[in-house]
């Protein structure tokens, strides 16, 4: 299992790239509500970018079910070695 | 699947980010950034990040209404039974790369049936095309396996839907429908196509039905099935997000899909390429005709490469049949360049097929311009094919509107890259298209323009050339001997020496043997020149001066000559003498010594010319090569 902080750093980088108008903090408790550009379309794109960058795969059931960024990061950390 | 979605596009430029910043600065000043600058930026092997940035740029350009008039505006409707919301941004980006400004209007979710069969109009504006992407579930009612009549009925229903959608598009938005073909289905058995009612069979029959309708002019096609099979079905599909996000194909494939669709839109706007300009040596055949001769070039059954070149020539001739006009642009002596066309039995392309034949020693960009002028076509109508990365770079710098496809240097990939590029995309052909190439042939006259165009020095600087000059040695001997015996064109005296002669020169204090190597930022060219000088205390005589034709017009000969005179000056030599001996192959260097600053001493009966140049009077040339001289 990979270090959550390392994963969060990578995810943060992707979020900065994708949501270029947002410059607030990115933490484990960040949710889509915090970032105006993070709509349902962008969500799918974000998930894809994270999958490609980290070499992980989110499940069909998990795709829309994360409460916050932390849950996504933990799931990615679980899959990374 | 390769890492890069767009292998046919130029590699990402080192200064890509700076160019983007410049474009954005222009936008900030409320001026429309230049057409070819924007197009060039978008038409590169974009990584994920650059793709995102081009998509954003496309949005900004449209929002600020500061898009160059040269971009053809197009508005297309998107209609499907899965979400197509991920297409508009990549479509806008792909449009920039093809000279289009594409705006998309998405139909609300699940409005296929109402658009087709009710007066409701989900678009409410006039469009240039309606792209319809339906999957099997939108088309097929339940079909029990082996029930042939149920299959027939499902096909009839689907056709009815297509016809209704096409006529709705025409009536409600005044434009044609473009239907996506259906990608192949994953197979349960190898007998899918022979199993009525199976998905695989149904999809194939739907695709044929769509093809027939396109022939009849009822609608246009986006061959999604062909693209999916090109990248592989496993890459094309994303089962998780198909269910979780209702996407018809993988998001990762959106830039490629968008480019594929944009090439159809470009064809609708008449932006497809109409001409193909071909280099010759190592592009149409293997090797250098001027050096290797008719029997030496690789073409046909004599080698694997030779077969690949024949396959490529057949492909090119196939393009011509579709109305593409062919031209040749090659650094060669005209007569020699025409030899294979006239005399090589394996040559598929003949002289008659070439509308304009430009074989000379000037710069390729200049020749391409003259080809365009001769054919009265804009530069943007041309695709240029050359195996040489430096030539491609030069043409891209000078003529950014010409599509210089990244074919690589292996002839086995030329066809693939050109096909993938979509540059020759066209709508269903008519007989007029077929006869077009012939008419160009009739109009074209032989053209010859030798005027140089600007910035050549800048180009040479960007090549970052490094030259090494070293005395003959063990390592170089074999290649030196090969060059001495093979070089015909850039060879002043055409004197042949064997390996033992070369070894003798190495050990002779009265002879100077130089081997010249060149590297640049694109390639290590290896040994590209050989010079042999007979040394006397007061006078040196250039016995042999030859160069490979791979690196012409780079200042190589000037730089070597400068070095020779520097060495002569150090040795206290007063004079250098030289000779040109004409053959039927070396006309290109007939004025070599005059150009270098030598004076004619005598013109002899056998056609040879003696030259001399005093070391004191010699003027060094302006070159752009770093040289290191080993002793």
Automatic annotation (TrEMBL), chain A:
SUPFAM superfamilies: ACP-like
Start and end residues of each Carrier domain: 1-80
UniProt superkingdom: Bacteria
InterPro entries recorded: ACP-like_sf, PP-bd_ACP
Protein name according to UniProt: Acyl carrier protein
Organism: Halocynthiibacter halioticoli
Lineage, opening ranks: Bacteria, Pseudomonadati, Pseudomonadota, Alphaproteobacteria, Rhodobacterales
From TrEMBL, chain B:
Keyword Transferase: no
Tagged with keyword Hydrolase: yes
Domain of life, per lineage: Bacteria
GO molecular function: hydrolase activity, acting on ester bonds
Keyword tags: Hydrolase
InterPro entries membership: FkbH_domain, HAD-like_sf, HAD_sf, HAD_SF_ppase_IIIC, SGNH_hydro_sf
NCBIfam families linked: FkbH, HAD-SF-IIIC
Protein name: HAD family hydrolase
Species this chain originates from: Halocynthiibacter halioticoli
